Amino acid sequence: MWTGLGGVAASLALAAAGPTGTSAAFEEAPCGEDDLQCSHVTVPLDRTGALPGSVALDVRRLPAGAAPTRTAFVVLLGGPGQVASASAPALAADLGGVRGDRDLVLFDERGVGGSGALRCPGLLRPSGSGALGCATRLGALRGEFTTAADVEDLEAIRVAGGYEQVVLYGASYGTKVALEYAAARPERVEALILDSTVTPEGPDPLQLSTFAALPRVVRSVCSGGACRGVTADPAGDVRRLARRLGRRPLRGRFVDADGRRRRATLSPADLLTILSAGDVDPVLRSAVPAAVHAALHGDPAAFVRLRAQLGGRDSRAAAAGGINRARFVATTCEETLFPWDRTAPPATRAAQAGARIRAMPRKRYAPFDWSTVIAAGILPLCVQWPVASPAPAPVTLPAGLRALLLAGGEDLRTPLEDAQAVAARLGPAAQVVVLPHAGHSVLGSDVSGCANAAVVAFLSGTPPGSCETVERLLDPARPAPRSVGSVPPYPGLHGRAGRIVTTASRTVADAARRRLSERVQGTGVRRFGGLRGGTASIEPDGLRLHGYVYVPRVAVTGIIPDDTMRPIELRIQAHGASGRIRAGGGRVTGRIGGRRISVSTSRTSAAAASFERDAVRGLAASPLRVP
Asked: Could you tell me which residue ranges the AB hydrolase-1 domain spans (predicted)?
């Protein structure tokens, strides 16, 4: 919360005195969430004194065990603007086991959550004009939400807690705060754990490291022959589609949550948006190779659906309190090193950025063109923002600090190459651990436990093991069939009835993937459209299909129960082959087109079993296996 200046000096003086013994000096009360303790640390709004006021930082602490040290394990989240307090119990559960005998400390950054949350309603749909409106609303305050301010706030929390040193775990933007703190106060840092590393000079508004990593990442999604039968050249497909979209936009249709078919027109910027969104959504990432390949060969349905699926996700996340958009914009627009003069008017800035990008070798941002570099990045968001703070000072990283850098091999927004570059600057005590099939935020997305084990080993002083052998969680999606005739019969069945059963199983799999994507992202979406028609709804007892169409002219209705002991019962509408099937107890039974069927599900392929085992983890383990 925001407060006046009264009492701030006294509070800070008490904080600086520190505690006696090993207990924290925060004036705490139970949060009512597990074993977390809540407190506030009051800091000046403007440490130069030019602006009055203070900020009460919302701090949460999970106490260490019986023999705590004078070192805190401090969590620094991403964004900027991610609300730590909203996910404090989950963070405590996830990270409590890796911190050893250290207190776990997390806090809402200034302007976020319980630390005086900024509000700019016009940013739910961010744009340049929305950012200008936010700057006007914030006034002179807009220059006080920088990484440098976060660094000083972190130091105030360290002092208030009486900690001699800190272990800093930063994720995404949090790595930038951690690195700047380490540069300012290396003697206070026991170790750095950097997850999805942003360079101290980042983020790069032109995303050049993203473009450089793109071919490698797309190939990684298909590595090990995973895209056999999908595409032989996934990176080439992306390159060809980007160039085709640059010549002529792609037009297609998608089905909305009400089952209505809607038109869509996609540009190269939309392709880049889809690729970038895959960083944090492994289900979407696994769907990209097939969707891109199909779009190149005349079937844009899956590709258009991916873009429609992303529409509104940022707004829903902001509305749900996950990211404070005003804080994100204030920090991003104030301190990003844009290719323009900070003091120039918007029109001049835009011209300077365009000239800078056009002067670059095309290969720096291939396969896209310069207009896509502008449209898909943060330049349009910040071009009208009137800066109120000096440009950030250069950061010199201290050599010799112990550091563990976690990198997802399929992360585009903070690619592996950035982590390697930062590790080189930190020196030989910095180690990089790569999870080959992880995206952005490695600890948050790794279900193998390898990254967690690497952190535990690192903090105990032993070399972290390699994670290179960790397998992908989800195989790439298949291309969506364009007719029943192109679908193979279900194993053990023949003719059209066998093709219809396979179509039903793949329809269930498609809907399950989409549900898994929404669950991974925590979007709160309860209903969505099928690939080519109908809808699906997420019910308390499972996933219900309402005339859901994955393969043209085959509509599937029924429920996939969460209770894996219950069977799947489906009604299928298809020309000349309608009917009902029941999948459970290791068999598929029913009647299709007047023909009685009964077949074992154990005869399906290993790939099908892999999908059931991995893709539907956390959903229902479907007894209708996918051939």
From this structure: 73-201
> What span, in angstroms and rounded, lies between the C-alpha atoms of 276 and 239?
15
The per-residue b/e assignment along 243-259, b for 16 or more CB within 10 angstroms, e otherwise, is: eebbeeebebebbeeeb
Which residue do the tokens 């190149």 mark? 296
Pairing of strands 568-574, 554-561: antiparallel
Q: Are 436 and 487 in contact (CB under 8 A)?
A: no
CA distance 199 to 207: 12
463 burial level (CB within 10 Å; 0-12, 13-18, 19+):
exposed
> 3-state class of 123 per DSSP?
helix
Q: Do 194 and 76 share a domain, yes or no?
A: yes
Q: How far is residue 204's CA from residue 136's CA, in Å, rounded to a whole number?
A: 25
- Distance (Å, whole) CA 578 – CA 555: 9
CA 346 – CA 450 distance, rounded (Å) = 47
d(CA 142, CA 384): 14
State the pLDDT at residue 320. 53
Measure the CA–CA gap between 26 and 14, rounded to whole angstroms. Answer: 10
* 588 falls within a domain: yes
Alpha helix (H) residue ranges in 336-378 = 346-358, 370-375
Residue 312: DSSP 8-state? T
Identify any residues that bridge with 194 across adjacent strands, giving them in sequence order.
170, 405
Does residue 78 fall inside a structural domain?
yes
SS3 121: helix
Distance CA 527, CA 606 (A): 31
Between CA 199 and CA 419 the distance in angstroms is 8
Looking at the structure, tell me whether residues 498 and 597 fall in a common domain. Answer: yes
How high is the pLDDT of residue 313? 66
164 and 229 together in one domain: no
Decide which of 415, 443, 459 is a domain's last residue.
Answer: 459
Q: Which residue has the tokens 């179509």?
A: 503
Distance of CA 553 to the CA centre of its chain: 35
Compute the distance between CA of residue 98 and CA of residue 319 in angstroms, rounded to an integer: 31
**Cα(47)–Cα(60) distance, integer angstroms:** 24
Q: What is the DSSP letter of 301?
A: H
DSSP E strands, 71-164: 71-76, 103-107
pTM for the full model?
0.90
Question: In which domain, by residue range, is 175 found?
Answer: 2-110+145-202+397-459
Residue type, 555: A
- Within a domain: 385: no
Q: CB of 532 within 8 A of CB of 503? A: no
Please report, for residues 113, 129, 314, 427, the alpha-carbon distance to residue 121 in angstroms, rounded to integers and kept in the order given: 15, 12, 13, 44
Structure tokens at 441: 């935020």
Distance separating alpha carbons of residues 257 and 308, to the nearest angstrom: 11
Residue 69 makes CB contacts below 8 A (sequence gap 6+) with 22, 101, 102
pLDDT averaged over consecutive 10-residue blocks of the chain (627 residues)?
31 31 66 87 95 96 85 95 91 86 95 96 73 95 97 97 97 97 98 97 95 97 95 98 96 97 96 94 95 98 96 60 89 96 96 95 94 91 95 94 97 97 97 96 90 95 93 90 94 92 92 89 89 96 95 96 86 94 88 92 46 34 41
3-state secondary structure of 27: coil
Residue 424's H or E segment, with its range, is helix 416-426
**3-state class of 126 per DSSP?**
coil
Tokens, residue 316: 């829903």
